[in-house]
């Protein structure tokens, strides 16, 4: 089949009925649900762009195996040119959604592509796991499937491992083996966009201990598989708010969900790892499933940061506040932050290495530096935006107020900005800012940058420990090696 159109994606959504819970009810029809309709159209647009002449060369490549076009995010990177093709494709997608949708199809395409490119690792443990992931990759690539993923155990008792929780199936684990596959039970989080996807892949961050065998697993199932409950969080928009009042929240709501598996059958050919604590713990360090999606996340995060910084600049400019020195200082800092991330991305891409198996990977230290800095830089941007917009962020008439003939002249008189910025223009800018720095939509977007790649505290600590192990601290050691020992003062 090759690349899908938006219509084909929406048709597939219509043809299924996953068990999606929203506000205490099962959603009867995803596309008829106002909370989901606009975000689904935004995803459909990304599929359509694959066919548009302006984007096709960036978003797709011809698959060597099938001769058909496939999404560029399915391209297995072997050299710098492949890396940069993927980078461009990530950027085109991110620009379309202003970086606000983190789990667009390209994200998990990179995860599965990397798993398949590193099937040698799974083959060390089990021939079938390797064959299964290779076939799954081809299935996704050739049918242009949209995946969600859930790789974190729910927060029950973080001081205990999965097998030590009060209930053995609070966390997702295997109940039994059958001739046709494994039966899985328990929960996993935090599946972003689950309701709008075709299938789900489960794997885990490392951290398994002996005794956790039943939880050490990786597999994929269709999103409407029998026994899977998708429990959505409270929406950040009601699906009916106007694009004037909420230009971002009304478009880019990326619904997150807890996945609860109630005795779901996973056929053997969709099992990628099972009952093996060592393999589950080594999956991240030994394959590229940290670095390859981190490339997508780095590019997307850069676009989101740049977008938020530009909105902050617009807020300041629209009310003449950027005439003040401290506002210029703060905005200068934000712009420099975007330049830091852009430069780090280019460095990580240029300083790629080729693995023994021929996979081109970005410099992991630089990539991890991006991931370490974004949880500080993005919230800082939001903080500056709040400080510059100040009370004006609360003093905004709604679209309905603008439409009132009686009120309109008053609005036009009192809500305008500096010379050249009328009330409507200023409110458009401030409403953009409020979606980012005040609304639940913006707080979720901020929480995403803090946590999408794991707990930033432990990630920085892991980074430090690995750096200390891998780097000789040569400069400090060079001076310490000089013979500056304590000497008794010379007395005559
Ligand atoms: C908006 C959003 C979207 C996301 N989308 C997805 C998605 O699509 N798919 C997916 O799989 N995941 C997704 N994630 C989940 C993400 O992977 C997790 O949130 C992340 O790994 C952090 O884990 P946690 O939330 O369970 O926090 P926890 O690990 O529970 O951390 C909570 C607090 O406890 C501390 N803590 C917990 N355990 C320890 C420990 N062992 N040692 C020291 N300190 C500890 C942490 O420092 C932190 O302060 C998303 C997250 C967010 C916020
Ligand atoms: O470690 C990384 O940054 C890559 C990454 C982040 C978040 C995920 O959910 C994931 O599957 C992979």
Automatic annotation (TrEMBL):
InterPro entries: Acyl-CoA_Oxase/DH_mid-dom_sf, AcylCo_DH-like_C, AcylCoA_DH/oxidase_NM_dom_sf, HpaB/PvcC/4-BUDH, HpaB/PvcC/4-BUDH_C, HpaB/PvcC/4-BUDH_N. Coiled coil: none annotated. Residues 5-273 form the HpaB/PvcC/4-BUDH N-terminal domain. The keyword Oxidoreductase applies. The lineage of its organism: Bacteria, Bacillati, Bacillota, Bacilli, Bacillales. The keyword Flavoprotein applies. Keywords: FAD, Flavoprotein, Oxidoreductase. Residues 280-480 form the HpaB/PvcC/4-BUDH C-terminal domain. Gene3D superfamilies: 4-hydroxybutyryl-coa dehydratase, domain 1, Butyryl-CoA Dehydrogenase, subunit A, domain 2, Butyryl-CoA Dehydrogenase, subunit A, domain 3. This is 4-hydroxyphenylacetate 3-hydroxylase. It holds the Pfam family HpaB_N. Transmembrane segments: none annotated. SUPFAM superfamilies: Acyl-CoA dehydrogenase C-terminal domain-like, Acyl-CoA dehydrogenase NM domain-like.
